[in-house]
Each structure stands twice: as structure tokens, then as C-alpha cells.
Specification:
By secondary structure, the protein is an alpha+beta fold. The chain has 3 helices and 10 strands, in the order E-H-E-E-E-E-E-E-H-E-E-E-H. A 4-stranded mixed β-sheet has the order 1-6-5-2, covered by helices on one side. This is VOC family protein.
Length: about 170
């Protein structure tokens, strides 16, 4: 039997508290094509919850995948879940370090604060911005294709992490 693996990312979704600002940012600043918007009345969703009316929008990246957003008709309180901000982000690929520099200039021209360029051990170079909802976006250039050595070394790191966690030696 063949191993099942998803073919590609269709979309990754999060919430927005201001669809108009989100739309402007993802079309005008990020240059994404507005692919679709689905508006729904109050209904029961896949989790079994009854929810108020909402809109679900899709912004297309160059490869056809999308970033997507939900805005609910009823406002909700933003809550801090205690996780560090840097652990949650969308990482989007660019073609070169030169393109990464172009993006930095582009963001600055639009008044969007930029963190970086950050060198991730020579493997990735990244800059970071936030969209109007505070969603952290990483634009990143991968300097080479990840290969068998990366897999082997990464698996050893994962096993070591799991072992250290079980032993209570992480600090």
C-alpha cells in the first residue's frame, strides 16, 4: 500500500478582526490576487458549533496556494494564549536574497515595519513583518534544497529532543 501524503497546501486560514484592512494589505502590499470570498449566514460548522454569520476570504500566492481569513459578524475579544509571538507565523518563499532585499524596501515604502534580515545558519535568510491583524509573516529564501543529509541530521536532532524532554533535561 502506498503512503498517503498531501499533494500541496490548498490554504492556511486564520481570523481577522478587520477584513477591509486585511484585504488591502494582502492585495496592495503583498501583491496577492484576491481569489475568492465566501459569505455564510449563521450556521453549524465542522466542529459542531453554532456560529454567527461570517466571511471566508482567499488570497492567492504565486504557486496557486492561498492564505485565507475568517471574519465573524460578532466581534470577539482577542486573547493571549501565552505562546511566544515568534512561534506562530506564515513563512512564504522568495526566489533569492536580492528579492528578499526588494521586499524589505517594498514594505518600508508602504510604512510596514520590517525585522531582519535574519541569517538562519546560512540555510535560510528571512525578514519579518506583521499584517493588520498582528499575524507575523516571514519572507524567506532557502539557499539550497534540503537533502538526505538534512533528513538524517534532522531526525537525529528530533530523537535527541524527544529523549531530553522525556528525561526532563531541557532547559
Amino acid at each position: 500500500m502506498a503512503t498517503l501524503t498531501p499533494r500541496a497546501v490548498n490554504h492556511i486560514a486564520t481570523q481577522t478582526f478587520d477584513m477591509e484592512a486585511t484585504h488591502r494589505f494582502w492585495t496592495e502590499v503583498m501583491g496577492c490576487r484576491y481569489a475568492a470570498g465566501l459569505r455564510f449566514p449563521a450556521r453549524t460548522v465542522s466542529t459542531g458549533e453554532a456560529v454567527p454569520p461570517f466571511i471566508h476570504t482567499f488570497y492567492e500566492l504565486a504557486d496557486g496556494s492561498c492564505v485565507a481569513f475568517f471574519e465573524l459578524a460578532v466581534s470577539h475579544e482577542r486573547r493571549d494564549d501565552g505562546l511566544p509571538d515568534w512561534t506562530r507565523h506564515y513563512a512564504l518563499s522568495v526566489s533569492s536574497r536580492a528579492e528578499l532585499a526588494e521586499w524589505k524596501e517594498h514594505f518600508e515604502a508602504h510604512g510596514v515595519p520590517v525585522d531582519g534580515e535574519i541569517d538562519h545558519d546560512g540555510l535560510f535568510y528571512s525578514i519579518y513583518v506583521k499584517d493588520p491583524n498582528g499575524l507575523r509573516i516571514e519572507l524567506t529564501y532557502l539557499t539550497r534544497t534540503l537533502g538526505p543529509d538534512d533528513h538524517k541530521e534532522g531526525l537525529a536532532e528530533l530523537r535527541s529532543w524527544v529523549s531530553d524532554k522525556a528525561a526532563g533535561t531541557l532547559s
